[in-house]
Design goal:
binds inosinic acid, Maf protein, globular, 8 strands, 8-stranded mixed β-sheet, alpha+beta, 197 residues
């Protein structure tokens, strides 16, 4: 089995979520930010798959190591899958989570609750320096709430309502979110792959 894998992410939030989900594997998981230098991949793909693969391949070559990279997005049915791959910068280049939420709520201002269906989708790419590549995806369905709610304010969490829990993502504790999230589901498959390498 692979003994060490590098996470190609600069997000502390994601690093913690991914490390906690992989902690029962006998693999050292390191974030690329713990190195002096790391690649700054330009995420210009047209799909989440394109970006995850690009990040994983570049980092695998750079570090000469197995790498995990992910890309996620929120796909709103009424907006034909937008913001999708542009989720991070939906309201502009330097925008905040709050700016993105405001823009999305405005785009859906006349849309009734039952038509505000959406899903978060994650694609995770696992790449080796010699060019091996594995892909895994995970999704969670929800509804874009009419207003923001909850205290765990990552990304679109305050407006992503999950009917089964009668709560938004931001109202769920990280423990619960980390068992049901799109990333958690994609990481379950990643575990299966890692055990076979
Ligand atoms: P990333 O590829 O995981 O960085 O996700 C891109 C963007 O999608 C983030 O900047 C967030 O705005 C949004 N996003 C991804 N995952 C989540 C989540 O679990 N909750 C809320 N927003 C998310």
């Amino acid at each position: 089995m692979v003994k060490k894998i590098i996470l190609a992410t600069t997000s502390k939030y994601k690093e913690e979520e991914i490390k906690s989900l992989l902690k029962d594997l006998d693999i050292e998981v390191m974030s690329m930010t713990s190195f002096d230098k790391y690649p700054k991949t330009i995420e210009d793909g047209k799909t989440l798959e394109d970006n995850a693969i690009k990040k994983a391949k570049e980092a695998a070559k750079f570090f000469n190591s197995w790498v995990i990279a992910d890309d996620s997005g929120l796909e709103v049915d009424y907006l034909n899958g937008e913001p999708g791959v542009f989720s991070a910068r939906y309201a502009g280049k330097e925008c905040s989570f709050q700016d993105n939420i405001k823009k999305l709520l405005y785009a859906l201002k006349d849309v009734p609750f039952e038509k505000r269906t959406a899903r978060f989708r994650t694609v995770i790419a696992i790449a080796s320096p010699s060019g091996q590549l594995y892909l895994s995806t995970g999704e969670i369905y929800g509804i874009i709430n009419l207003i923001g709610k909850g205290q765990y304010n990552f990304g679109y969490d305050p407006i992503f309502y999950i009917p089964e829990y009668n709560k938004t993502f931001a109202e769920l504790t990280p423990d619960i979110k980390n068992t049901i999230s799109h990333r958690a589901k994609a990481l379950q498959q990643v575990k299966v792959v890692l055990k076979q390498l």
